[in-house]
Amino acid sequence: MAGLRKDHTGNTVLIYDSYGNHIKDTVVASHDKVEQHMQVRSMPAELNVNDDCRLFILTSPKPYEYQGKVRKIAGKLHIALFQGHEMENRAATRYSVNTPAIIDALFVDGKLYKLHTEIEVELINISTGGVRFRAPLFSFNVGNTFQMHLVISGNRKELITQVLNHVDKEPDSSDYGCRFLDKSSQMSEG
C-alpha cells in the first residue's frame, strides 16, 4: 500500500476518531516502516488501546491518509497503520479543524503589503488545496489574496491563500473558502 513504507517522522498529523471527529493536531515522533506503526508526540486522551482512528499526515507535495488502530507496544501507545494512501489535490478531502490563524499581509497588484493590525480568524476546515475560515467583523472579496499564518503542533506555517467564495453569517462573521497559492506566483513585497 502506498505510503506505508514512507517515513513520516517529523510531519504534522491531524488525528480523527472513528466517527470522523477531529481530536488532535500533533507531530509524528517516530515511524516504524517495517512494522507499520508510529508514535506521536502527544497521543489524544480520547484514544485507548484497540480504538480505531484516522490520520491525515501533512507531507509535501501531497499528504497521506491512513486508517489506524491504537496498540500498546513496549509499554507505550502507538498507532498501527493500515489502508494508507497518498491523497490527490483535485479530490481533496476536507478535515475539520478548530485552529486560530492570523492574516498579516495582503497582495495588491502583485505586491505584498503588511497590515498594521493583524486579523485573527478561525479555521473551519483544511484540505490539500485550500482552507475555509471564519472572520468576525471583517470583509474580504472574491479574488483577494493574502498571507496567513497558523500554528499546528507548535510549528508555524505560512500560507498564501486566495478567496474563492464566501458566506455571510451576519451580523457576527463571514465564512471564506480559499485556495492555496504558491508564494512564487506572487510578485514582490511592497
Tell me about this structure.
This protein is mostly beta strands and 190 residues long. The protein has no helices and 13 strands. The chain has strands spanning 12-17, 22-32, 37-40, 52-58, 64-73, 76-86, 95-108, 111-126, 130-136, 145-152, 155-169, 173-181, 188-189. It has a six-stranded antiparallel β-barrel. Strands 7-8-9-12-11-10 form a six-stranded antiparallel barrel. The radius of gyration is 18 Å and the shape is elongated.
Question: Features of this protein?
Answer:
190 residues, mainly beta, Thrombin, subunit H, elongated
Q: Taking all residues together, what is the mean pLDDT?
A: 81
What class, by secondary structure content? Answer: mainly beta
Strand content: over 45%
Give the proportion of residues in helices: under 10%
| Coarse shape | elongated
Number of helices: 0
Give the full name of the CATH homologous superfamily of the largest domain.
predicted glycosyltransferase like domains
Low-pLDDT segments: none
Number of strands: 13
Output the radius of gyration.
18 Å
Q: What kind of sheet is the major sheet?
A: 6 strands, antiparallel, barrel
Give the domain tally. 2
Q: Cα distance, first to last residue?
A: 47 Å
* Widest beta sheet: strand line-up: 1-2-3-6-5-4
CATH architecture level-2 label of the largest domain: Beta Barrel
CATH class placement of the largest domain: Mainly Beta
CATH fold title of the largest domain: Thrombin, subunit H
SSE order, one letter for each helix or strand: EEEEEEEEEEEEE
